[in-house]
Structures are given as structure tokens and as C-alpha cells.
TrEMBL record:
Recorded family membership: Belongs to the DXO/Dom3Z family.
Reaction it catalyzes: a 5'-end NAD(+)-phospho-ribonucleoside in mRNA + H2O = a 5'-end phospho-ribonucleoside in mRNA + NAD(+) + H(+); a 5'-end triphospho-ribonucleoside in mRNA + H2O = a 5'-end phospho-ribonucleoside in mRNA + diphosphate + H(+); a 5'-end (N(7)-methyl 5'-triphosphoguanosine)-ribonucleoside-ribonucleotide in mRNA + H2O = a (N(7)-methyl 5'-triphosphoguanosine)-nucleoside + a 5'-end phospho-ribonucleoside in mRNA + H(+)
InterPro entries: RAI1 (IPR013961), RAI1-like_fam (IPR039039)
EC top class, as a word: hydrolase
Coiled-coil ranges (or none): none
Gene of this entry: TBLA0E00180
GO molecular function: enzyme regulator activity; metal ion binding; mRNA 5'-diphosphatase activity; nucleotide binding; phosphodiesterase decapping endonuclease activity; RNA binding
Positions of the RAI1-like domain: 19-351
Organism domain of life: Eukaryota
GO annotations of cellular component type: Las1 complex; RNA polymerase II termination complex
Protein location: Nucleus
Lineage: Eukaryota, Fungi, Dikarya, Ascomycota, Saccharomycotina
Protein name per UniProt: Decapping nuclease
This protein's UniProt keywords: Hydrolase, Metal-binding, Nuclease, Nucleotide-binding, Nucleus, RNA-binding
Length: 378
């Protein structure tokens, strides 16, 4: 493997022109690791009246029965669902989507966060492939250490809060029995709803797949852009000290970045006490987060700085990676204070699976793009 290029985290773009995110399609994934294009069966709706806080909800309740189906997936980071959705979208339009980079929102978030929180996000391990004139980026799954004790309960509380705060259908279609049983519902992972969003910065066009926690109010028809109705759910320790306030600023910056990238307008935080009891729920507007952070010197300019870094790293990828050669693939990692892009040699053991196999691009998507290209060439 030969080194190709480095991008140091202090570099910034002077251009902060952003394209308005637009939802173009969606898909659901279930706990059997099946992908369902243009299917919103796993989209949930927010419902958590203030009166529920009077019940002293225990966010550790049911932790012993927690079922993490996702950890047993064959490929937790697969692009299969995203590509299947794009294929269906392109088939309907009979044309290739105009994009320079196709990946998940979480990958771009990690790449941006590396410039601000290297300790937390130093496990950037990505594979990059040029295919049909576009750059596809996939994450390599990490073997995460098994959480224990309080750390395990803290992680569980987020899943529990999401289970308590959402329902599978709009309220008029949900029975009272289902609502009342939510506190005792077994918490699981694996099912998710993903919005596919077209966005961009400067002259770089991106298509990002982004998991969506819920609809805040109502879902419009499938032909409209539902981004404005989505909400991000989070759960964290309640803020009682100045140190906890500074820690929350760091967390809400990351959450802002996560929502900003695809245009999700609302963030809802549940705050728990030391005994894992839910004490309050607060809603934040994504566009107001940069203003809220102005009071913290450490994060006052972080949002604008993140946009400038976002522009720099996407432009770096476009300038560094030639898009006229489908036989090139790369490894992208974060080391110390820079991103490092290295080209795979043909003799590398990963090369064939990435370039010719289905490590990144599925067989179905390859065949579709080949068919589409032959139609255009006639």
C-alpha cells in the first residue's frame, strides 16, 4: 500500500456555501438484516406528554432483557440498503443520480468530528472506491469493547428513552393498550428507518443515508420532503454543575453536526439523574445550537469552523481521488492530527473484494449501472 495524501485538521475552506438538504427516498432495515427500499415501516412517531415525567420513569428498567440484534449482523456498515434505494430511485428517473460522494451521514460526521475531538473519534477506518465516476465510502466495523456497569446502563438508557418516546404509527391509530405498555416493552436494536438525502457544500454534491429516530409531528405524502418533520432523540445526564454544562456543550455540538448534515430541524434530549430516573425532556432547534454555544469559549466558533473543515475535506477528496478509474480503491484513516488516504495495491488482500466484489458495491447495483450505461450509449 502506498501513501497517497494527508489532510491536516487545521486546514479550512474559505467557502461555506451549502446546498439545502433534500430527501430523495428512504428505506427500512429490520432485525433480520433485510433492506426494504421506499418502505417506512420502521419509521416511528414522537409521543411523550409532559405528564409522563410524573411517573418517575426508570431508564434502566428492562436492561437485563435488552436484545441487541444489530451486533450479530454480518455487515453492520453495509451500503446495500442505500444502494438498493438509489437503484430504485434511478430506475424511476431512468438516469444516474448527480453526486460526487455517496456514503452515510455518520461517516461524514466522523470525518468532521476528527478535527474537534480526536480522542473520541480516532477510530476512523474507511474504505473508498471509485465506481462509475462517483466516490463511495464505507466504514469497517469495529470490535467494540463490551460495556459494563454504569457505562452499559448509560448506553441502554438512550435506547430505552427512544422506546418510551415513540410509537409505531400516528397517535390516532395507536391503541391505549400499546401506549400503556411502552414502559414494559423489551428494548431492541436492529430495526431502523433511513432517509436518503441529497446535499452538498461548495461544488461537492453528496448523497447521504441517515438513520432517523422519529417524526416529530406528521408525515407528508411520499412526494414531498419530510426532513422538516424529523427529530433526533438523545438521552444524557442531567446538568447540575458547571463541569456537566461544559460536557453537554460538547455533546450537543456533535448532535448539531449530526442533524445539520442532513437538515433535521429538531433535537430532543431526555435528562436522567444518577439513579437513571428520567427527570426532564427538552427540545432544541438545530439552527439555534450555534447561538447557544456562543456562551462557551471552547465551542463558540465550533459550528462555523466545522463547516469550513467540511468544505476542506470534501474538496480534498475530490482533488485527490481521480474519478475516471474504477480500479482504484483506498483506505482512509485518522492518525494524530491528520486524515491519511492510502491507495491499495492490486496485490493487497482487500483489493479484489473492494474493486471486483461486493465489499462496497453490491452485485445488483453494479449490474444496474452497467445496464443504465449501455442504454445511454445506444
Amino acid at each position: 500500500m502506498k501513501q497517497t495524501a494527508n489532510l491536516f485538521v487545521k486546514q479550512r475552506s474559505q467557502t461555506t456555501t451549502l446546498k439545502q438538504p433534500k430527501e430523495i427516498t428512504c428505506y427500512s432495515r429490520n432485525r433480520e438484516e433485510e433492506y426494504l427500499p421506499k418502505d417506512d415501516c420502521n419509521l416511528h412517531y414522537y409521543y411523550f406528554p409532559d405528564s409522563y415525567l410524573d411517573n418517575n420513569v426508570d431508564l434502566s428498567g428492562g436492561a437485563a432483557k435488552f436484545k441487541d440484534f444489530q451486533k450479530n449482523f454480518k455487515d453492520r456498515c453495509s451500503l446495500k440498503g442505500l444502494l438498493a434505494s438509489l437503484q430504485q430511485y434511478e430506475m424511476n428517473k431512468n438516469t444516474k443520480i448527480k453526486a460526487d460522494i455517496i456514503t452515510f451521514r455518520g461517516i461524514i460526521r466522523k470525518l468532521i468530528s476528527a478535527a474537534f475531538d480526536s480522542e473520541q473519534f480516532n477510530h476512523v477506518d474507511l474504505r473508498v472506491l471509485v465506481f462509475d465516476g462517483q466516490i463511495f465510502i464505507k466504514e469497517i466495523p469495529q470490535d467494540e469493547p463490551e460495556l459494563v456497569g454504569k457505562a452499559k446502563l448509560n448506553a441502554y438508557s438512550g435506547y430505552k428513552f427512544e422506546t418510551l418516546a415513540t410509537i409505531p404509527q400516528p397517535l390516532p391509530f395507536v391503541s391505549r393498550e400499546l401506549l400503556e405498555k411502552r414502559p414494559k416493552k423489551i428494548v431492541t436494536t436492529g430495526d431502523e428507518y433511513v432517509s436518503v438525502v441529497k446535499t452538498g457544500i461548495s461544488n461537492c454534491r453528496l448523497v447521504l443515508g441517515a438513520e432517523v429516530d422519529c417524526i416529530f409531528d406528521f408525515k407528508e405524502s411520499s412526494k414531498t420532503n419530510n426532513i422538516y418533520h424529523y427529530a433526533e432523540l438523545k438521552c444524557t445526564q442531567q446538568i447540575c454543575t458547571a463541569q456537566q454544562a461544559r460536557g453537554f456543550d460538547k455533546k450537543i455540538f456533535r448532535t448539531w453536526l449530526q442533524c445539520f448534515l442532513v437538515g433535521i430541524p429538531r433535537i430532543i434530549y431526555g435528562f436522567r439523574d444518577d439513579n437513571m430516573v428520567l427527570k426532564s425532556v427538552e427540545e432544541f432547534s438545530t439552527e439555534e445550537i450555534p447561538i447557544l454555544l456562543k456562551d462557551d469559549p471552547a465551542w463558540a466558533n465550533a459550528c462555523l469552523d466545522a463547516i469550513k473543515w467540511y468544505g476542506a475535506l470534501t474538496q480534498w477528496l475530490l482533488d485527490t481521488i481521480p474519478r475516471n478509474d474504477d480500479k482504484k480503491c483506498y483506505k482512509l484513516v485518522f492518525e494524530n492530527n491528520h486524515l491519511r488516504l492510502s491507495e491499495f495495491e492490486e496485490s493487497d488482500q482487500e483489493y479484489d473484494g473492494i474493486v471486483n466484489g461486493d465489499v462496497i458495491i453490491s452485485k445488483e447495483f453494479r449490474e444496474w449501472r452497467t445496464q443504465l450505461k449501455s442504454q445511454k450509449d445506444k
